[in-house]
Amino acid sequence: MLAGRLVELLSEWSPVLPHWFLYYPKRRLPSAAMRAFLAHMRSYDWRGRA
Fold first, then answer.
1. Residue 38 in contact with residue 20, Cβ under 8 Å?
2. Residues 6 or more apart from 37 whose CB is under 8 A from it?
3. What per-residue confidence (pLDDT) applies to 48?
4. How many CB atoms are closer than 10 A to CB 15?
5. Distance (Å, rounded) from C-alpha 50 to C-alpha 41?
6. Is 28 helix (H, G, I), strand (E, B) or coil?
7. Strands (E), 1-50
């Protein structure tokens, strides 16, 4: 039984992406929380994390 867990289907067809992608409107000024989140994501050490 899966007990509500996500199961990957067709894993051989799923591409491996090197990073997360975030889309947000650039025309509007982001909130303080969004600016903090973006700063954290930009400073994240992707090479040392799995």
1. no
2. none
3. 65
4. 4
5. 15
6. coil
7. none
Spatial neighbors of 41 by CB under 8 A, at least 6 apart, are: 20, 22
The pTM of this model reads 0.44
8 Å CB contact between 8 and 2: no
Q: How far apart are CA 19 and CA 15, in angstroms?
A: 12
pLDDT average, residue stretch 15-30: 75
CA geometry: angle at 33 spanning 19 and 24, to 5°?
50
Closest CA to 46 of 21, 28, 23: 21
Tell me the average pLDDT across 4-20: 81
